[in-house]
Amino acid sequence: EAKARGRSTVCVFAPEMEARLRDRLQMEADLRAALAEGQFHLAYQPIFALPSGERCGFEALLRWNHPTRGPIPPDAFIAVAEETRLIVDIGAWVLRRACTDVGALPGTPRIAVNLSPVQLAVGDIAATLAAILGETGIDPARVEIEITETALFTGEQRNRDTLRRLKALGVRTVLDDFGTGFSSLSHLRLFPLDKIKIDRSFIHDMAEHADSAAIVEAIAGLARRLGIDTTAEGIETEEQLAIIRRIGCTEAQGYLLGQPGPLDGDRRS
Ligand code: C2E
Ligand code: MG
Ligand code: MG
Ligand code: MG
């Protein structure tokens, strides 16, 4: 038995695994330092209402400027932040920063913030958000909480309960990256959502594949009948914009219309 354990120990500390573990521990230490030393900032991508084309809000996107490695995209560090639960503190920072920045703009643009399922499952995000709403004085109806369908429909019941408590604060709930997870339109009955963001993979395929356009059209049509807004994500071409206008999506977001960047208070809301 000791021999077997010995073998498995050798296996656990195989060199490449050891390297991965070291990288992960380093990343965790770096993330802690990043939060303490202010290495994070937010990029804001504008979102536009259709058919008017007026800018109606922004999505806050987390950016990390690492002191030696330079800019690191969120997809490269959110997972470690989730595993270590650092996302709870990082996510609270994002919410506070975003509500402060956008709350100070003229007009009443909305601010969308991405929430990790870990933030729903651990700690007390409702208390955190309530405090931030109070501090910043932003109208809760201007705040949108984006969550992915995997977090909402394949995760714990607790995630849905927590999101309901957020919604009770008066904020809007948004299903992000719709179509990429275990999505089923029937799931939409399980949780009161204000908006669905149709994943950019569908938007990307629409022009060449009639099937993708048909799916987006069906989603937009059903959402409309349920009184739910639909944002088309990842609009990169005029052709895609024309299609989602025709299909009747209520909002558009993408590089064609606006890149993530510093908040520009001068742009009309
Ligand atoms: P997401 O919430 O779906 O955000 C949209 C992503 O698509 C952003 O990537 C944005 O820069 C990118 N994007 C926008 N328009 C276009 C386009 O026209 N074409 C293409 N190809 N991409 C476009 P980003 O900023 O790298 O963020 C990636 C993901 O990281 C986000 O996906 C979100 O899931 C996560 N994330 C970002 N900020 C936060 C945060 O504060 N907290 C949490 N938990 N997750 C975050
Ligand atoms: Mg999002
Ligand atoms: Mg998305
Ligand atoms: Mg995403």
TrEMBL record:
Domain EAL: 24-269
Domain of life: Bacteria
Protein name: Diguanylate cyclase (GGDEF)-like protein
Shown part of the complete sequence: 614 to 882 of 882
